[in-house]
Design a protein that fits this description.
The protein is mainly alpha-helical. The chain has a single domain, classed as MetI-like fold (Orthogonal Bundle), CATH 1.10.3720. Helix content is 77%, strand content 2%. It has 12 helices and 2 strands; from the N terminus they run αββααααααααααα. The protein has a two-stranded antiparallel ribbon with strand order 1-2. A hairpin with a 2-residue loop joins strand 1 and strand 2. Helix 3 packs across helix 7. The longest helix is centred in the last third of the chain and has 35 residues. It starts with a helix and ends with a helix. Keywords: Cell membrane, Membrane, Transmembrane, Transmembrane helix, Transport. It comes from Rhodovulum visakhapatnamense. This is Spermidine/putrescine transport system permease protein.
């Protein structure tokens, strides 16, 4: 048997599992998005009513926009924090690099619920942050707006997904030749220009890849807004969950899910194009 044939046969179980466990459910979900609910039964007459409802509903449009807005915000925050951390790991950590990378990933070894409840302990009225501020005399009474707010949600989301951004940027910094920065410095370029014209273009593939990972996971996060957001914890993901549960409107839930998926696929396509272009710039350099 030829090596190519052997590889094909070995890949078949993986392809079959991918099709059965991933693609087939998505196809069923797509088909359901064209159905409708008639009292307590699902009508299988196809139509675009569910997608029209999404476009006409200010609530659903607002939830979808807020989800993608949160994704962009957290991706931007993790990028700002991740750049100096990734630079230090790649260029200055030395022998401690392995240990620091392990410490960076330690939070991911614990479950989502454990991390969320740890933030509830920190941000609560009787939590460590409020107690420390009162002890320092900065405040007289606990800050009530820390927990069960958009602030708490975005703090936890940033903490949860920062490692993914740092890893993407760290890999980009590992491949960055310091000679380019030294040449720019020799030519008199200040630090800001060196970052804007050398570091940023050459590390853009890692930034885009890390940003996409963070963006997608924030958009699809269900537990964090529910447990930390309070009244602001209603998200498009929780709306989909309700439609498939108590509301028994599977077709509308499927339509919203596929609308989200379509937007995410467009984002991935745009990200792939940008990564390709930035990689060509890096190779040309």
């Amino acid at each position: 048997m030829r090596p190519q044939s052997a590889g094909t046969w070995l890949a078949l179980p993986v392809v079959a599992a991918l099709g059965a466990l991933c693609l087939a459910p998505l196809a069923i979900l797509f088909a359901y998005s064209f159905f409708s609910v008639d009292f307590v039964t699902i009508s299988h007459d196809p139509s675009l009513k569910n997608y029209a409802r999404i476009l006409q509903s200010e609530t659903y449009r607002g939830l979808i926009a807020r989800a993608f807005g949160s994704g962009l915000l957290v991706a931007a925050i993790t990028a700002v924090i991740g750049y100096p951390v990734a630079w230090f790991l790649a260029k200055r950590a030395g022998a401690a690099k392995t240990m620091l990378l392990t410490l960076l990933l330690v939070p991911l070894y614990s479950g989502d619920l454990l991390r969320i409840f740890a933030w509830r302990v920190l941000l609560g009225a009787e939590g460590a942050i409020n107690r420390s501020l009162i002890w320092l005399g900065a405040i007289d009474a606990p800050l009530q707006g820390l927990l069960f707010s958009p602030l708490a949600t975005h703090i936890a989301l940033t903490y949860n997904y920062l490692p993914f951004m740092v890893i993407g940027l760290w890999l980009a910094f590992e491949s960055l030749d310091d000679a380019w920065l030294e040449a720019a410095a020799d030519l008199g370029a200040p630090g800001r220009d060196r970052f804007r014209r050398v570091t940023l273009p050459l590390t853009a593939p890692g930034l885009i890849a890390g940003g996409l990972m963070v963006f997608v996971m924030v958009v699809g996060d269900y537990l964090t807004p529910q447990l930390l957001g309070g009244a602001s914890g209603v998200t498009v993901i929780s709306a989909i969950n309700d439609l498939f549960g108590t509301a028994f409107d599977w077709p509308l839930g499927s339509a919203i899910a596929w609308t989200m998926l379509a937007i995410l696929m467009l984002c991935f396509g745009a990200g792939a194009v940008l990564i390709r272009r930035s990689s060509l710039v890096a190779e040309g350099a």
